[in-house]
Specification:
There is one protein chain. By secondary structure, the protein is mainly alpha-helical. The chain has a domain at 63-117 and 138-217. The protein is 57% helix and 2% strand. Helix 3 packs across helix 6 (151-164). The longest helix has 24 residues, at 90-113. The protein is globular and about 55 Å long. 32% of the residues are buried.
Amino acid sequence: MKIEWIDYRKLSLNNINSKEFRHLWLLLYWALYGFMFRLVETNLYPLDRYTPMYHPLDDMIPFCEWFVIPYVFWFIYLAAATVLTLFADREAFKKMMYFQMITYSVTILIYLVFPNCQELRPETFPRDNILTRFMAALYATDTNTNVFPSLHVIGSFAAMLGLCKIKAFDTKAWWFVNWVICILISMATVCLKQHSILDVWGAIPLMLAAWWIVYKRKRKKNVKC
């Protein structure tokens, strides 16, 4: 199916509230989210207030630096999903944004009321290469707090749904590719010791609830988006 790109050249202050362009206001959420995320990342509480997330399965999952590739690809994946839905399918963009607004907001609330962390990072790496050096640099800059539920898992699922809901891309092959990407990113969070398996499990009910609200629940036809 041919993509019908949305023409934003017609956008102006006079018509930004029109049905054609008012979905752009949803992008303002990222400013609010960015502020709230930076707030919770500043270690609002004493270290002894943070609950370590741990499950015995974490010890059975080996560290594998090759998962750096899907882990970092997450940022490209989210950006691509936002840009493609924004320009190719207005409804797919809105639903992806609603999904993210629900899941990300609830996640920030969890971080605020249930401070949590992980203590799984290896003290030494089994190998010395460019990937393990990258992880060492990441460990040094990325806090080990605010991990449950995993935003990496939630974000990858949001991008997968957004991309697969673009009408022009709705094929079995496209769904398969995006599911593989989503699973690899989720695996990367535990294989790089950035998250406990509990963080992945904790993301699942939140994602399912948001999926039902955004994609499955029947909405009144006369409700404006």
